[in-house]
Amino acid sequence: MEGAKDLIKDHLPHIFLAIMFSVGIAGHLISPLYSLMITLTPYTLLLTGITVLYNYRNELRRDLIIWFMTVFVCTFFLEVIGVKTGLIFGKYEYTTILGFSIFSVPLIIGFNWAIIILGSVIIAGMITKRRIAASLIAALIALSFDFLLEPIAIKLSYWQWENNNVPIQNYVAWFSIAFFSSISYFNTVEKVNNKLASFYLFVQFIFFLTLNLFL
């Protein structure tokens, strides 16, 4: 009995994330709940993201904090440049669905970028110890995530692309940003043992895959 309790306690963050995204899937697919789910989107991303970061509290060394904040800030301002000029990702704009924005970009975007890349590098680091190879794998994982994300994000009106078409430029940018962020991670951050960020990436994969199939 004690063993079962300890197991549940150790995996409580995983259970919480699985429940949150399962409820999100059901809520998006059940018509009367759809509007509520859309309204709750930025708060859900913030709550689940904070859950992930809190679970890393024992590994929040200076190197990991600096890397995470750098990715957060850099990706946010790349998004700002992208929205204002169309030079990075292509021509697009955010709606109000993702919550509080600065310079027309929701703050939650940089936050989610950083967690998604963290999850990607943790998975890649389990596959190979070679930094360049791991960075390429992490970039491919992040790129695969965006392939799943884009169609449903457009359908849910998270953002809007010019002519409703996602340009190849967007995917090149995603790969490049994830690759250089991963290189930075493997060159500056000591090994992180906690793998919750990779589970967070996994449940988001399942979330967007399911909505793509059934919404």
Structure summarized in a few sentences:
With 215 residues, this protein is mainly alpha-helical. It has helices at residues 2-10, 12-29, 31-55, 62-85, 107-127, 131-155, 168-188, 196-214, and strands spanning 92-94, 101-102, 105-106, 159-161.
How is this fold's topology laid out?
Elements: H1 2-10, H2 12-29, H3 31-55, H4 62-85, E1 92-94, E2 101-102, E3 105-106, H5 107-127, H6 131-155, E4 159-161, H7 168-188, H8 196-214
Antiparallel strand pairs: 1-4, 2-3
Explain this structure:
- The structure is a single chain.
- With 215 residues, the chain is mainly α.
- The chain contains eight helices and four strands.
- The protein has helices at 2-10, 12-29, 31-55, 62-85, 107-127, 131-155, 168-188, 196-214; strands spanning 92-94, 101-102, 105-106, 159-161.
- It has a two-stranded antiparallel sheet. Strands 2-3 form a two-stranded antiparallel sheet.
- The mean pLDDT is 94.
